[in-house]
Amino acid sequence: MNPSRFRPAAGMALLTFAGIPAAQHADAHPKHPGQQPPNIVLIHLDDMGYGDLTATGATGYRTPNIDRLCAEGMRFTNYYSAQAVSSASRAGLLTGCYPNRIGFTGALGPKSKTGLNPDEETMAENLKKAGYATAIVGKWHVGCRPGLMPLDHGFDEYFGLPYSNDMWPHHPQTSSYPPLPLYEGRKVVNPSVSAADQAQLTTRYTEHAVDFITRRSEGPFFLYLAHSMPHVPLFVSDKFKGKSEQGLYGDVMMEIDWSVGEVLKALEKSGAASNTIVVLTSDNGPWINYGDHAGSTGGLREGKGTTFEGGQRVPCIVWWPGTTPAGTICNQLASSIDLLPTFAEIAGTPLPAKQIDGVSIRSLFEGVPDATPRTSFLFYYRKNSLEAVRDGRYKLVFAHPGRSYEAFPPGNGGRPGKVAEGHEFPLALYDMRRDPGERYDVQSQHPEVVEELMRIADAAREDLGDDLRGMPGRNRRPAGRAE
Question: What domains, with CATH codes, occur in the chain?
Answer without folding.
Answer: 3-374 (3.40.720.10), 378-481 (3.30.1120)
